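#struct-queue
[09:14] JT: dropping the first one here, sequence first, then the structure tokens:
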Amino acid sequence: MTIHYHGTPITPRSVLHTLAGKHFCVSHAEPRDVAECHKIGQSVMLDNGAFSLWRAGKATDWPGYYSWVDHWFSYPTTWAVIPDVIDGTDEQNDALIAEWPLKERGAPVWHLHEPIERLQRLADCWPRVCFGSSGQYAVVGSALWHERVTMAFNAINRRHLPWIHMLRGMSLAGSHYPFASLDSTDIARNHHRPQNNAATMAARWDAQQCPGRWSVRAEQAYFGLGETNKREIAVDSTLT
């Protein structure tokens, strides 16, 4: 079954309470709902906030993140995303994994622009791995993105896949990819719209499940395409 982690903060607090019993994602960059989510949530995913900080041009505080995560690990169903550098090198991200002090309840991030070999190594060593859209694969659902994710699942396909979490990937709920979990701030950003209701939105997302297995699929290379053509392919693509 695919777990859908609903991103926070969700305001006002009364709206958050309508989602009691759901799964939540709380970012270290915006942690105001973390205590409440642990009171009412079925499980909580702790995000390192690297993407938000990177986008805002702010510095990271990994020792502070380690301490924060360690406190909430008293809840047995809570897990955390290991710190990563969004536009960093393999070496930088591997160094952060090596520094991670809280062992198997953390999940490393494989960025789609990184070598497939790195994903294979992470999948062999960790029970849970996060996919992060990046580089030329930053647009979730583009043709290039689909091709890269197909290549990734082909590379790690085996009888029992590791737990793969798609960061900022709720739009892939119900797709043919075997994601064990996904997260999104869709409810936090859009529940206030007149036509929306937070509980109804969550129920709709939670009802969309991904398959438990992967069948190897053909891969199409985009080598030789100019940047203009790549952008056109991305614009014309749709989710399958």
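[09:21] JT: and here's the second one, same format:
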Amino acid sequence: MTRSRRDFLKSSAVVGGALGVGLPFGPHGVAAAATSAPSPLPDQVTRAANPLKILILGGTGFIGPAQVRYALARGHTVTLFNRGQTNPGLFPEVEKLVGDRATGDYASLKGRQWDVVIDNPTTLPRWAREAAAALKGNVGQYVFISTISVYARNDTPGADETAATATTTEPDNEERTAMSRNYGAFKALSEQAVSAAFPGRTTVIRPGLIVGPGDLSDRFTYWPVRLRRGGEVLAPGNPTDPVQYIDARDLSEFAIRCCENKTYGVFNVTGPASRISVAEMLGGIRAVLTTTDLRLTWVEAPFLQANNVRPWSDMPVWINPVGGSAGFAVRSIQRALDAGLTFRPFADTVRATLEFYDQQPEARRVQLRAGLAAEREVEVLKAWHARGQG
């Protein structure tokens, strides 16, 4: 390890401690002036001046429950539309309408009106077209939860919402492999469909990696769980590599505020407010833990690639910021910040993630869906330490 990297890691431990209590950071790892107010704690939520009737498509998966809780706390009336199969016991006090978007069954929406609809689960362009047609004339604002993956390129740091989006030659291919292959392009087409049906009254939210309690993908959960276990931890790439993520609750609260304020347009919604490095993220996680035997070993990106350690999946949150991925974790979120995007303390995200994980069945906890298995991590670290020998 070079002297400069050693110095950086010492400073990142301090920075991580500050991050653990929610301070934002600038491009050099030092505290920066806040550009976003903190998200309100549950007991600080006040009722909205003008309560709304909000229809949520989905609402019982990952981000939907956070939307419902915040909307109810603000005094809004919420209706859910879904198949009634995912977490059906949630929110007994909320009206639930049953339908099936896969078959185009929107009959339960007929003759009803709402101030705003939030569309969470849509990927297929057909779903967007059919939902927009079913609700046209009966909803004032359409909030579409899209994805930051809509962009055609990720090679420009700081690119904003005006960047070109992905396209496809098979817009109506609904086979599973096609859906995976065209995920970004299908979301972009869905954005266009709802915008065409509700011109000037559409809010498109493009979240980055969504993290926090309720996440079953483990794309962030891996890190708090792994660092809590302690020992030597394989850390990816360069400590200064940028990362971006958004707590599902911050994303949901922003969506509800867009409804309240009739905020229209397209918004990249990820965070935190200022650029953050993977070392700062890991330092922020470490600051929450009581683990004492914890050592980070930084393994360079070319070595990871040569040993088939994949970014994003084996090393969640992180992607090597070079070439076509140079701007992947450096998307501009200034438009969302200007529209009122806020962030809760990172320590709260870490604690809530671990609490949710600890409540899962043992079989679910022992087999994370992202990140390196323990034996594989040991194998790669052993190879890293042995390089150049023999």
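[09:30] RK: nice, looked through the second one.
[09:31] RK: The first strand starts at residue 53 and ends at 57.
[09:31] JT: good to know. Residues 288 and 351 are 7 Å apart (CA to CA).
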